[in-house]
Amino acid sequence: MTIAPIDTAVLRTEFRLFRREPGAVFWIVLFPTLLLVILGSIPSFRDADTALGGLRPVDAYTPIAVLIALIMSGVQALPQVLTGHRERGILRRMRLTPVRPAALLTAQMIVQGTVALASALLALAVARLAFDVRLPAQPAGYLLALLLAAASALALGSVVSALSRTTKIAGAIGSAVFFPMMFCAGVWLPVQEMPHALARVVQLTPFGAAARALGEAAAGDWPGWTHLGVLAGWTVLLTAGAARWFRWE
User: Fold this and answer.
1) Contact by Cβ (8 Å): 32, 72
2) Exposure check for the chain: N or C terminus, fewer CB within 10 A?
3) What are phi and psi of 20, to 5 degrees?
4) pTM listed for this prediction
5) pLDDT tens digit string along 130-143?
């Protein structure tokens, strides 16, 4: 699997196709913010919690909402699109045109990454305006952790696509990966509240590390190099796996 130079025509086409998928638009762009609004509307979520180091639950869940968008885009949406193109023979037919299949892969990763990052910005804006959640006090560190998390999510989605011959298999594998990654991101229990032994294991996963890195940057600290290293390591490992196993036909 190789990443081709950006083909603007293919990129525009893939963006148009994405806009025509209301399910993808809802789950990637709107659902993370909607979930944050629902949780933030619960009065107890707006009270400081000593178990979270004095943070309010809505403060702790804002980075989680950001990660949900990345997980949705990388693990659920990307494999379905790429596997669908392969299953329908689109990638094979593209070999007969001046546009290489790798250009489609590049366009899809840009589309999914851009949409996920836009969703993250929407969640941050709504959290700030609706619930007075402070913007990240360490914006450079937050951005670095966010970009590494997005790269990890897309690399993971590429592996799922590489291992899937059909969209049904991609959906099954994606779902099997999706829920553990949501748990590691802290959707059901923030990483800060997990038992110490469990938290140490979770922080070795890409989204567990991302949750801690984003939380640290939001609080004003530079993300721990251990967490950033875990994200970078997973990105390299998953990208190598996708390159090894991906097939155009």
Assistant:
1) yes
2) C
3) -85, 0
4) 0.86
5) 999 988 889 999 99
